UniProtKB/TrEMBL annotation:
Gene3D superfamilies: Carboxypeptidase-like, regulatory domain. It is found in: Cell membrane; Secreted. Residues 155-175 have a biased composition (Low complexity). This is Branched-chain amino acid ABC transporter permease. GO terms for cellular component: extracellular region; plasma membrane. The keyword Transmembrane applies. Its main location: membrane. Residues 141-175 are annotated as: Disordered.
Length: 475
């Protein structure tokens, strides 16, 4: 070995040792100066988004006539403590880092002045479910006798978030009673929540399945149409100050319009150029990512509330619910029934089913396939926008990635029910919704979607075409 080689080798070894020392020093500094990933302490925040490290205790302070009360000091006590003041719209929020019971208190004179029935309220944030913990506190209802704290208010919330897509209504006052909750009541509550969520999911999935049936395209951007509907309803109610119904109608119209624009600008030209469905699917993935970041850029990363008032909850047998939830479920049922009547009782609907079964044969029989596909895109995106509005009302908010988080469940629903069949998408969605919510009775809340996907795998092993799918196409 020459002297030059020896020098070069020593130089490289020196560089390697220097690099290793620098890496070790960097790791040591990161370990010493970077705080560990611990739960955050309670703090007052403008808006609170649940995550893996923090839960939320929040609400809207209103008087007896549902008008917001601004500038009221609220104190949080319990596992952690903090203080905040309601904003101009009566909004307030605490981010908490520990599980346990929390009490929110205001001055009794303020409660009496505005006709509130309580000056304190107690809620419980459950352990190991911070990413799905959002307790809405209210002071306009008297405390149930079971709470054991005279003058205490009540809290009602939907445990779940727009990121997960599923909710289960609970009353916080029952949590205050400890671990003696009735498992039977919880069973019916979870079943009810699963059916409601399944209807919402079905409204999204039916449109997705119609697009697949007529074009063979699995659209990964369908979730963004759901998000668009919810955000447009937020713009209508909170920025333009419209009533909810006109804002919802405008959101649905915008959703249908975007479906027509997509088809005319993107999908129809790609079909005319005979671009394969696999390449088109990749385009939908890019469109999905672009729309997500556009939503985040224009609307931010927090949850946007379509309505600000806290609905009054009531008991129906063993189930706790509220009027917006029942109305949303009713609208979803009407919309799904309307689509079914359209498909089976109208000439255009029969043409749609013909195109879904065999597009070439439908074209040979005189059906304008392009016109049918255009109508399907409009209906599909309008239904997705409607589901976004209903989901935003049901979940008490919508965020920039709500649709994206539900996309996997949509695909599971349409695959379980049978690709290309509208009724199959509805049945698959109900199964996914019920299984997901019921499974949280026996497994951690964070794993509830895994059980639904396990059901999907089992069904497909037994019946690969899905519940209502055809084993093979005719023609």
């Amino acid at each position: 070995m020459t002297a030059v080689n020896i020098i070069e080798r020593r130089r490289r070894m020196g560089l390697l040792r220097s690099s290793l020392c620098a890496a070790a020093l960097t790791l040591l500094m990161a370990f010493c100066f970077t705080p560990p990933n611990q739960a955050q302490a309670a703090e007052a925040v403008p808006t609170c988004n649940p995550s893996a490290t923090n839960g939320c205790v929040n609400g809207i302070l209103q008087d007896a006539s549902k008008k917001p009360i601004a500038g009221v000091e609220l104190k949080l006590s319990g596992a952690e403590s903090a203080t905040t003041t309601t904003d101009a719209n009566g909004n307030w929020a605490f981010s908490v880092g520990k599980d346990g019971s929390y009490t929110v208190t205001m001055d009794e004179s303020v409660a009496k002045e505005h006709g509130l029935k309580a000056a304190t309220a107690t809620v419980k944030v459950e352990k190991n479910s911070f990413d799905a913990a959002r307790q809405v506190v209210r002071f306009d209802k008297p405390a149930p006798a079971a709470s054991g704290s005279g003058g205490s208010g009540s809290a009602s919330g939907k445990s779940g978030s727009s990121a997960s897509g599923s909710t289960s209504s609970t009353t916080a006052s029952s949590d205050a009673g400890g671990a003696g909750a009735n498992i039977g009541a919880r069973f019916w509550q979870q079943l009810y929540s699963g059916v409601i969520f399944g209807l919402m999911l079905g409204l999204m999935s039916v449109g997705m399945n119609l697009v697949y049936g007529t074009t063979g395209l699995s659209s990964f951007s369908h979730g963004e149409q759901v998000t668009l509907g919810g955000l447009m309803a937020f713009v209508g109610t909170q920025i333009l100050h419209w009533p909810l119904v006109p804002a919802a109608i405008a959101a649905i119209a915008i959703g249908g319009l975007t479906g027509w624009i997509q088809n005319e600008i993107v999908w129809a030209p790609l079909r005319r150029k005979h671009v394969g469905t696999m390449q088109q699917m990749i385009v939908t993935i890019g469109l999905s990512m672009a729309l997500q970041y556009l939503f985040q850029f224009f609307f931010g990363g927090d949850i946007k509330g379509i309505v600000k008032s806290v609905p009054n909850s009531f008991q129906v047998g063993p189930v706790t619910t509220d009027s917006p939830t029942l109305i949303s479920a009713g609208i979803a049922i009407v919309a799904i029934v309307g689509v079914s009547l359209f498909l089976y009782r109208t000439r255009l609907g029969r043409a749609t089913r013909a195109v879904s079964d065999n597009a070439a044969l439908a074209a040979a029989s005189g059906i304008n396939v392009e016109q049918v596909v255009r109508i399907v895109w409009i209906i599909s995106c309008a239904m997705a926008a409607l589901s976004g509005v209903l989901l935003g009302v049901y979940l008490n908010g919508i965020s920039w990635n709500t649709g994206a988080t539900l996309l996997l469940l949509m695909f599971a629903a349409v695959t379980l029910g049978g690709l290309g069949t509208a009724n199959g998408a509805l049945v698959g969605s109900l199964i996914i919704g019920v299984v997901a919510d019921m499974s949280s009775l026996v497994i951690p809340n964070d794993m509830r979607y895994a059980s639904a996907l396990a059901i999907l795998i089992i069904v497909l092993l037994v019946r690969p075409q899905g519940i209502f799918g055809k084993q093979q196409r005719v023609g």
